[in-house]
Amino acid sequence: MFRTEVKVGRIPVTGVQPVVNCGAVPAKALIGEDIPVRATVFREGHDRLGATAVLYGPDGAEVQRTRMTEGAPGLDEFLATLRPAVVGPHTFTIEGWSDPYATWHHAATVKIEAGVDVELMLAEGGALFRQAAADPDRSEADRAVLARAVRGLEDTTRDTQERLVAAEDPDLADVLAARPIREFVSPSPAYPLDVQRAMAGRGAWYEFFPRSEGAVYDPESGTWASGTFTTAAGRLPAVAEMGFDVIYLPPVHPIGRAHRKGPNNALEAGPHDPGSPWAIGSPEGGHDAIHPDLGTAEEFAGFVERAAGLGLEVALDLALQCSPDHPWVAEHPEWFTTRVDGTIAYAENPPKKYQDIYPLNFDNDPRGLRRAVLRVVELWIARGVKIFRVDNPHTKPLWFWEWLIAKVHRSHPDVVFLAEAFTRPAMMHALGRAGFQQSYSYFTWRSTRDEIAEYLHEVTAETPAFYRPNFFVNTPDILTEFLQFGGPAAFKIRAVLAALSNPMWGMYAGFELFEHVARPGAEEYIDNEKYEYRPRDFAGAEARGASLAPYITRLNRIRRAHPAFQDLQNLVLHPADNDGILTFSKSRRHLPDGQYRAPAGIALPVFPGVPDAAALTESLPGRADTVIVVLNCDPLAAREATVSLNLAALDLDPADLDSEGRFEVEDLITGARWRWGADNYVRLDPAVEPAHVLKVVRGS
């Protein structure tokens, strides 16, 4: 005799999301983030059912219970939003259940209208509400509402329709919405949700080379004096004033002499050329050392402290590669790849060659090498670094990253790793599953309206559970043709798009100065800062009106003032009848609707360093913050279009609408106000202003 084990509940729950690798890997989440959850919930027959999403905190206690709503008709899809309020490992389940009230009400409405089983249907309703009132967890107020419904159903002095209306009382609807009558409750398995601090998935990054900040050229000797951590700290107030949250530094370690590259990646370097910071290691030390030209460990600590005082976190490059002069080459030749001629293999990405860099080989002595890397990471954590931008992680084995990130997080759960991986999607996604909280992305090369829209849908709706992109508009290695030939408008367009479509964006210094000249035949800057000093006159450019810094400041202030911009998965695309016009909206309710149970002493977060958002929350409790962005993606021509809005996605309340069903919007760039509706004419000239950033003005 065979024994069959039943694997489904009484009410089947399938297709739960967000779930990564069948729950073997936690889905990603941020503190205070709205996490869309969904599931397919169905049953036999025609009885009605419901579903509930339940969130459990790090201690295993239930912290949020949200009734799910049905998605597209006929697909048995149920949707809800969870909002974790503390950092730590969470779990969530989806409960499917039979809804006897909805089943009864549908049958009673149809039968009573047809004159079939009238008294029986009314009696069954009364019995249902009596049973609900007997629930010991219901309040006396709830019981009173249920008892009133019973009396109404059983009052034979009223006509039939009046008796049925007693089961449709608004107070009864509120009672059943807050605590529905549920039968055959069938929970899904518990799925993990890794809730991390805000900077794991939010923030604006600014990259600069500290050696260029304060660098001085001596024309008599033809030599440079390097900038230092002390002189570089002088740039921090301006970066903070622009509204950035993270200051990212390329490697700050000693640079090798062997095969040092000269200007513009020349194979021969002059005696005073500084070399690439990514060619790490010299007799002065390796990954644990600081380049003597930049200063001492104490001066680095002063830089970190100055940044923190301005509200900036320091991110440091973690580049696991060595110059031929790195101490590891002599001490641990087994950590590298030796060719048949006895030489150590340098880095190559044909036709590119990096003779000044030796890649690490993780197969010869994995235990020894991983211990050495862990020691380096922990050293820099002790020096105040909590964010690491990891160079080329896709050239190292995935098992190593899974091990390293998990090992670091056991002792330092607030440390963030950004994957600098421009490679195939499978590897980029796998790095996210291995533990990287964020990654560089293909955003940099998406320039047409349709390319951008397709990519935004992918990263906001398809992959956020395991892959969170950081939208960098440029890097020292990447100067796209869009920026090379699009003029100043191209820089505005990319800044608006990166800053407002994604809670994470970044830029490399010089973007605000419209630097756009590429090395011939390459997609990187001419006179590249990777190989030489490049001090810039930021203040002079701004005084001449030749800087994008004021515009970037405006964008970052808009981001901070509007919580809607702090989430990834709340982006909705809207159509326009011109292929150059991109439209999207983002919306977020400031406070939960009463379904959240915060742990003792824990309040729902706003966002660190965002006082405007806190004020907005207090002024509009329970209301939505909704912003609509309309962007001309063409830097060379004015575009006109009719923008058709999905009004349901804008979270509009009746008080927001006038008698014609229109609502007021305010342009956060220009201050202009208009009345908008479902269809709206726009004309955007990139030479004047390429974007509308429209706040929905809420009614009283």
Radius of gyration: 30 Å
Q: What general form does the structure show?
A: elongated
**What is the topology, as strand order, of the major beta sheet?**
22-21-20-15-14-11-24-23
> Helix content range of the residues, please?
25-40%
Rounded to the nearest angstrom, the distance between the terminal CA atoms is 70 Å
Provide a count of the helices: 18
* E-strand count: 32
**Which spans have pLDDT < 50 for at least 5 consecutive residues?**
591-621
Pfam families: GLGE_C, GlgE_dom_N_S
Active site: 391, 420
Keywords: Carbohydrate metabolism, Glycosyltransferase, Transferase
Binding site for alpha-maltose 1-phosphate: 261, 321, 356, 392, 530-531
Provide an overview of this structure.
The protein is of the alpha/beta class. It has 18 helices and 32 strands. Strands 22-21-20-15-14-11-24-23 form an eight-stranded parallel beta sheet. Strands 2, 4, 5, 8, 9 and 10 form a six-stranded mixed beta sheet that branches. It is elongated. The relative contact order is 0.09. Mean pLDDT is 93; it is low at 591-621.
